[in-house]
Amino acid sequence: MPSLQPGKLIRSAAWTALTLALAAICVAAQKPTPTPRPTGTPIEEPTGSTKVFEVRLPVTVYNPRDKKSLITGMHQSDFQVIEDGVPQEMTFFSDEKNNPPVYVGVLMDTSPSTAGKL
After folding, report:
1. What residue spans define the domains of the chain?
2. Rounded distance, CA 45 to CA 87, Å?
3. How far is CA 49 from the centre of its chain?
4. Residue 31 pLDDT
5. Buried b (16+ CB within 10 A) or exposed e, 61-98
């Protein structure tokens, strides 16, 4: 391994430092500047409206004395729906005791054991 003279060592270190400084400047120059937002043009939020024709409002009425027993057999005339202080029209009323909701689930076995049977 050849030995470096003190003058060559200092020059080599100076060139290395200069090269690293130039590389750092080049890297810093590569950062893009952020695009300024246009001013004076307000961004409009999308707006829309929808008509709601029917809303399901499940209600459970308890006896006020013991708060454990349910009160059944109520009719549409026993209720009043108020939204934001405005009475709303009730177009449909259903007592789930006499007309319970029906939930149907369908299960299908699509595993490889039934591949030829479907």
Report:
1. 57-91
2. 31
3. 21
4. 64
5. eeeeeeeeeeeeeeeeeeeeeeeeeeeeeeeeeeeeee
Residue tagged 């400084």 (tokens): 21
In the numeric block, the tokens 């059944």 are attached to 72
**30-58 pLDDT, tens digit each:** 767 677 766 766 777 778 888 877 788 88
Rounded to whole angstroms, the Cα distance separating 18 from 27 reads 14
How high is the pLDDT of residue 21? 82
Q: What is the mean pLDDT of each run of 10 residues along the chain (118 residues)?
A: 65 80 76 70 78 80 85 86 90 78 86 80
The Cα-based distances of 23 to 17, 18, 34, 111 in angstroms read 10, 9, 23, 61
Contact 70, 61 (CB under 8 A): yes
What's the CA gap between 60 and 88, in Å, rounded? 19
For residue 93, the 8-state DSSP code is -
